[in-house]
Amino acid sequence: MAWVILILAGVFEIIWAYSMKMSEGFTKLTPSIVTLIFMILSVVLLSIAMRTLPLGTAYTVWTGIGAIGSFIVGIIVLHEPMTAMRMIAAILIVSGLVLMKLSSTS
């Protein structure tokens, strides 16, 4: 169950990262509120997952999900560049997440 909670926390991190971009430096009210709500939800779920999962594993997976998810949202929704170097970096991040999961005993 801790892994499901951690994945949900990572998804919430993607939502708050995107809504923070949409808030234009917290100058737009609705995206700013969405950002704050999902930041809080994400961190609370991370802390719940950390009751069972090791700190290094939980935090690395959480930030990795947020990073890769935000990368994908940036490419698909915001039309950010998808260069070969950025793709290699994303593959390395995902590889690290997989290794972190495989090395976890929880």
From TrEMBL:
InterPro entries referenced in this protein's UniProt entry, alphabetically: EmrE-like, Small_drug/metabolite_transptr, Small_multidrug_res
Keywords recorded for this protein, A-Z: Cell membrane, Membrane, Transmembrane, Transmembrane helix, Transport
GO biological process: xenobiotic detoxification by transmembrane export across the plasma membrane
Chain segments annotated as transmembrane: 33-50, 57-78, 84-102
Molecular functions per Gene Ontology: transmembrane transporter activity
Gene3D superfamilies: 1.10.3730.20
Subcellular localization: Cell membrane
Protein's membrane topology: Multi-pass membrane protein
One GO CC annotation: plasma membrane
Assigned protein family: Belongs to the drug/metabolite transporter (DMT) superfamily. Small multidrug resistance (SMR) (TC 2.A.7.1) family. Gdx/SugE subfamily.
Protein name (database record): Guanidinium exporter
